[in-house]
Specification:
Number of strands: 23
Radius of gyration: 40 Å
Structural class: alpha+beta
Number of helices: 24
Shape: elongated
């Protein structure tokens, strides 16, 4: 054998690469098996393609498969394939002397990141074997050559020997990894199964694991053993039992249980990649089973979308919408998405952020690309144009899937209950699909109290003279239903949508209109209605009449409000707080104040609403206050009632009080007046609130 052995030197770069792999410490050593199985699959592809034009190439073995054999006794892991095999020249060229163009690039990258998982991207996946092995042997037989052994211990050289010692392979390659002493875990049946399931479950060819398993068997007792047993029993007292079946029992041979090693040949990748099949040939049960195996969910999916894209780019995908949202859907440290990325049926990663936007993080499924490189670093992914096209197609197909769900009312109700936040986040983030996503929005409204209405249905119910889609945001449906802002709109017959989800505030900032109708918040100033000339003239007169009251109240309230105006938005309440057209609404201000890490100055103070106090011109309280101001604008009651009206309007409009204790003191003193109690009768308490003047019976009536 030694006479046939030839020694060759590795090319310098490959020698450096192997030194780097052997000496460095990597966390993810298991990728060696993925790389070697992928190489075996490529070799099987090559012989299969050859057989299409020349069937005789399969005469040396028609069974195309990959076999993994752990040999625990010798600490050797064997990966065998019946692929095309390599000639002597192939072994020398492919595994030793021709430096791949990516070798240097891989070495630079791996020194920076300490991550060898994308080794295959650089065309040097075979050398990942040295992550776990001290010595590697490759036995290979090509149809056009003899069987040869390539052997190296990752030094400066390798040997190639004509094989006269091993059994003939027929055709194909066998890689023998002599594992390092601390990495014998890769000989364990469970470990190998886990790695194959994770990375190579959907390889096109069967992957067999051949291993030894200890089993318990019953074997007949030999005569010599039986005789020994009888001698032992001679000295014992014999008790005869009368048994009708005694004769039958004597005829049965005696057996004993022994433990034996049995060779098990198990196929590991029986789950076939159903995405490669025609959707018309797949039953819903098959999709359900595949979904459960993919996600470990116990429920069937709500919807499925199976499609392929061909042309300049080629990939296949199956997307699933689950029945319910996971409890950690928006957890910050959670995986960004649930789409598994395969390249030619080899698993690459399941946390590729560039594959699908965050608002679709609930969609589960797989993408199998024919065009991406087999291994991808995150840096390559970010710049990969193919991935951007895949992402665009996935989003488009997800929207189509949601449209199909919307055709069934019950299913859509389940979907919207679980994932409405995601749809609204999509409206906030995805400008391209904003219009389509807005069709999925559902809200309760002043005219749709039993079930939520869509924007499309809202538009069909709009009166001819209504130009805008009106909405109100708030903390809860109960809070917005009793809001003073609704009073005039209800009277005019205009429908108002209730937006009570915090994320609605963000979504509606981006969703400016729907089908040409602008969305208008009824809590912001600048809301105008189509009134006739008489109403406008009357309102202008009322505004002029109340100018002294507005000026006095602005003087009293000072910096608390930007201005005091007369509004035609009220019909029952005396006043309301309006916010600036471009600032935060009261609800948005509340949301921002509750942020744990909010910026207390800067943008928060800039965006905080400029408050406008709007007075209802014909309300009795406003008319009485106007009369008091006309009589004496320095009256203490005017000051106290102005503050009280402002604070009450703050609460009714959805704001929080700047000084709740002062408001509480005012209310307490109002109660005292109602009960005809004097200040002397109540224990004195320090307060910054201005004291109410002594009120006569006529004054009390005015307050009422």
């Amino acid at each position: 054998m030694s006479g046939n052995t030839e020694t060759f030197n590795f090319q310098a770069e490959i020698s450096q690469l192997m030194s780097l792999i052997v000496n460095a410490v990597y966390q993810n050593k298991e990728i060696f098996l993925r790389e070697l199985i992928s190489n075996a699959s490529d070799a099987l592809d090559k012989i299969r393609y050859q057989s299409l034009t020349d069937p005789s190439v399969l005469d040396s073995g028609k069974d195309l498969k990959i076999t993994i054999v752990p040999d625990a006794a010798n600490k050797v892991l064997i990966i065998r394939d019946t692929g095309i095999g390599m000639t002597k020249a192939d072994l020398i060229n492919n595994l030793g002397t021709i430096a791949k163009s990516g070798t240097k690039a891989f070495m630079e990258m791996v020194q920076e990141t300490k991550d060898a998982s994308m080794i295959g991207q650089f065309g040097v996946g075979f050398y990942s074997a040295y992550l776990v092995a001290d010595e590697v042997e490759v036995i290979s037989k090509h149809n056009d050559d003899e069987q040869y052994i390539w052997r190296s211990s990752a030094g400066q050289n390798f040997t190639v020997t004509r094989d006269t010692v091993n059994e003939p392979l027929g055709r194909g390659s066998e890689i023998r990894l002599h594992l390092k002493d601390d990495l014998t875990e890769y000989l364990e049946e469970r470990r190998i199964k886990d790695i194959v399931k994770k990375h190579s479950e959907f390889i096109s060819y069967p992957i067999h694991l051949v291993y030894q398993k200890e089993v318990e068997k019953e074997v007949p007792v030999e005569e010599t053993e039986e005789a020994v047993d009888e001698e032992k029993d001679e000295n014992k007292a014999k008790i005869e039992e009368v048994d009708d079946e005694g004769e039958d029992k004597e005829d049965k041979p005696k057996t004993k249980k022994v433990k034996e090693n049995e060779t098990v040949d198990e196929e590991l990748n029986q789950t076939k990649p159903i995405w490669t099949r025609n959707p018309d040939s797949i039953q819903q049960d098959e999709y359900n089973a595949f979904y459960k195996s993919l996600t470990n969910d116990w429920e069937d999916p709500l919807a499925v979308k199976h499609f392929s894209v061909e042309g300049q780019l080629e990939f296949r995908s199956i997307l699933f919408t689950p029945h319910r949202a996971p409890f950690d859907l928006f957890e910050g440290k959670k995986k960004r998405n649930n789409i598994k990325l395969y390249v030619r049926r080899v698993f690459i990663m399941d946390d590729c952020e560039e594959l699908i936007p965050e608002w679709l993080n609930f969609v589960k499924g797989i993408v199998d690309s024919e065009d991406l490189p087999l291994n991808l670093s995150r840096e390559v992914l970010q710049q990969n144009k193919i991935l951007k096209v895949i992402r665009k197609n996935l989003v488009k197909k997800c929207v189509e899937m949601f449209t199909e769900i919307a055709e069934d009312k019950d299913n859509f109700n389940k979907f919207y209950e679980a994932f409405s936040k995601n749809i609204k986040l999509g409206i906030h983030e995805d400008a391209q699909n904003r219009g389509k996503l807005s069709e999925f929005l559902r809200y309760y409204s002043t005219k749709s109290t039993d079930e939520p209405t869509s924007l499309k249905d809202y538009v069909t119910r709009m009166p001819e003279k209504q130009k805008f889609i009106y909405y109100i945001t708030g903390q809860s449906r109960q809070a917005v239903e009793s809001s003073p802002f609704l009073e005039v709109l209800k009277r005019k017959g205009y429908e108002v949508l209730y937006m009570v989800d915090p994320i609605d505030e963000y979504a509606v900032q981006q969703l400016k209109d729907f089908e040409g109708k602008e969305l208008k918040s009824i809590t912001k100033e600048g809301l105008e209605f189509e009134d006739d000339e008489d109403e406008k003239k009357k309102f202008d007169e009322q505004k002029k009449e109340l100018e002294p009251l507005c000026a006095t109240m602005k003087e009293i309230l000072g910096e608390k409000v930007e201005k005091v105006v007369v509004t035609d938005m009220l019909s029952e309440s005396p006043c309301v707080i309006l916010t600036g057209q471009f600032g935060w609404s009261a609800n948005m201000e509340r949301i921002m104040q509750s942020q744990a890490l909010r910026d207390s100055g800067g943008m928060s103070s800039y965006m905080a609403s400029k408050r406008t106090l709007g007075l209802h011109p014909t309300h009795p309280i406003v008319r009485a206050l106007k009369a008091k101001v006309a009589a004496d604008k320095n009256d203490k009651t005017v000051r106290d009632l102005s503050n009280l009206l402002y604070e009450a309007a703050l609460l009714a409009s959805g704001f929080t009080l700047d000084d709740p204790s002062q408001f509480s003191s005012r209310i307490n003193r109002m109660v005292m007046l109602g009960l005809s109690l004097d200040d002397e009768e109540v224990a004195p308490a320090e307060s910054d609130a201005p004291a109410l003047e002594e009120v006569t019976e006529s004054n009390m009536e005015e307050i009422d």
